Amino acid sequence: MNLQQGITHKGLNLLLKLEPNIPKDLRATGRRMTRTRQAVLALLQRTRQPVSANEIFDQLQEEKVAIDLVTVYRTMHVLKELGMVLQLDLHQEGLSRYELKEGREHHHHIRCQICGLIVDLLLCPLKKVTKLIEQQTQFIVDDHTLEFTGLCPQCQ
Amino acid sequence: MNLQQGITHKGLNLLLKLEPNIPKDLRATGRRMTRTRQAVLALLQRTRQPVSANEIFDQLQEEKVAIDLVTVYRTMHVLKELGMVLQLDLHQEGLSRYELKEGREHHHHIRCQICGLIVDLLLCPLKKVTKLIEQQTQFIVDDHTLEFTGLCPQCQ
DNA sequence: TCCTTGTTGCAAGTTCATTGCAAATACCAT
DNA sequence: ATGGTATTTGCAATGAACTTGCAACAAGGA
Fold first, then answer.
1. Based on the domain organization, do A51 and A109 belong to the same domain?
2. Does A115 touch chain B (CB under 8 A)?
3. Is residue A121 over pLDDT 50?
4. Residue closest to D27, CA→C1'?
5. What sign for the dihedral angle of Cα A126, A128, A130, A132?
6. Is residue B12 over pLDDT 70?
7. Among A15-29, B31-45, B135-149, which stretch is predicted with the lowest mean pLDDT?
8. Digit-coded pLDDT (tens) for B116-135
9. Shared-domain flag, residues A111 and A86
10. What does the pLDDT read at residue A20?
11. Half-sphere exposure in the Cβ direction for B8 (13 Å, CA)
12. What H or E segment, with its residue span, contains residue B99?
């Protein structure tokens, strides 16, 4: 019996239910919905924290999904281009993390210095500040990144 | 004539005048003030923008200061440990930048997406927000990073 | 000036990420 | 359902930033 094939077919149906619009987004740019992209998207959907390429790779390995780390990177590249995924570069982590946009609001993160737990922050206090900065610097502000670090309740 | 030696001796005197407290900081932790550390510190002092290890290396090469890139990294490590230098990891640059603390106030940066110009921001709007976040998340907030990106006046 | 110990340069190694290319595969047309 | 073709994948190699091991060097106190 071919385990991989089983996952392919079941995974496909499952995903099309969860995110029926995603294949369209891909096809609209001449791309294809593949077994590996299904697997990555499904993982992102059920993952709460922003994940790194290596974490995606490891997790899929555990789930017996055959995928190469290179493919993970390429998939993230595509999903970023399509605007389906946000890339985060948290302070001094030395790697990139990714999270599904999927209609979520603009938000920031706080990360525990001990255990690495990353929690979403609901507020963004920077709307007014942005105008001030544009006046001060004469820049046209396009984006901002904000991140807090500290100790999570468990690690205090 | 030995250009390097000339720079060494003159550089030494110049630096001791500019920053008489630095050799003490080093010696207090059993470290030594060396020709290369002099050169790196002098460069940081006269540089306005946060600089990367490679930029430090290249600049010193141009100035005919003999130094290895490895030594630049090790020097930045020491200066960080002594609290004399801040390490910045700006969004999606994929490298670290450094700036002298030297009594400067807490501040953030804005970076031009086109030319890479980095400008200091004088305000930090996050003091009040931090308390709110501590209430919301039950974290103890230790630090934050904030960075804006956009288009500088030249590149608009 | 000597001696100890911290520092440097060189080479090699790590880690995260990208690229080239042949083989595999999605999926549209038939 | 099948075949054709353009996209995607895996493997191996490469790149970029940074770190580590070690012998030679040099700072600075005795």
1. no
2. no
3. yes
4. B32
5. negative
6. no
7. A15-29
8. 999 999 889 999 999 999 99
9. no
10. 58
11. 10
12. strand B97-100
Say yes or no: A66 and A118 in one domain. no
CB contact under 8 A, A110 and B139: yes
Structure tokens at A54: 């290596």
| CB-nearest partner of B91 from A130, A145, A151 | A145
Taking CA atoms, A43 is separated from A3, A46, A60, A74, in Å, by 18, 5, 8, 16
Q: Are A55 and A104 in contact (CB under 8 A)?
A: no
Considering CB atoms only, which of A123, A133, A153 is closest to B138?
A: A153
Can you tell me which residue has its alpha carbon closest to the C1' of nucleotide C25? Answer: A34
**Same-domain status, B140 and B94:** no
A54 touches strand C (CB under 7 A): yes
Q: Which of B119, B133, B154 to mutate to test the interface with A (most CBs of A within 10 A)?
A: B133
Residue A122 to residue A44: CA distance in whole angstroms:
20
How many domains does the structure of chain A reveal? 2
Query: Alpha-carbon distance A139 to A123, whole Å?
Result: 24
Q: For residue B131, how many other CB atoms are within 10 A of its CB? A: 11
Are residues A55 and A9 located together in one domain of the fold? yes
Q: Give residue A98's domain range.
A: 1-104
Q: Tell me the CATH number at A110.
A: 3.30.1490.190
pLDDT of amino acid A12 = 41
With b meaning 16 or more CB within 10 Å and e meaning fewer, what string describes A54-66? ebbbebbeeeebe
Q: State the CB neighbour count (10 A cutoff) for residue A126.
A: 20
pLDDT of residue B7: 34
A122 pLDDT higher than 50? yes
CB B76 within 8 A of CB B51: no
Tokens of A140: 């046209």
Give the distance from residue B50's alpha carbon to the nearest chain A alpha carbon, in angstroms.
Answer: 16
- pLDDT of A11 reads 38
